Amino acid sequence: MSDSELSVLRERAARGDSDAIGELIELAAEREDFEELRQLADGGSRDAEDQLVELAAEKEDLDELRRLASAGNTDAAEVLAELTE
User: Fold this and answer.
1) DSSP letters of 5-57?
2) Using an 8 Å Cβ cutoff, are 47 and 25 in contact?
3) By percentage, how much of the chain surpasses pLDDT 90?
4) Is the overall model pTM greater than 0.70, yes or no?
5) Burial level of 34, CB count in 10 A (0-12/13-18/19+)?
6) By the 8 A CB rule, do 31 and 13 touch?
7) For position 37, what pLDDT does the model report?
């Protein structure tokens, strides 16, 4: 996907287009783009937050899992507990 196509997709997502949000989440997960997933999660996307937890777990990114857990994400807290046992 070109930069301009990605920009258009982000603009659609910013306007609340759920299809665009879903596409961005999928692309960010494929690219392992923590920042994009964080932005989408911070914007209220539970799916983005779920993908962020999954990616952080795969990468054993304990700092990201701690950040998510401290923000109240119980899935992140559970994964963190499993990884640190």
Assistant:
1) HHHHHHHHHHTT-HHHHHHHHHHHHHHT-HHHHHHHHHTT-HHHHHHHHHHHH
2) yes
3) 94
4) yes
5) middle
6) no
7) 96
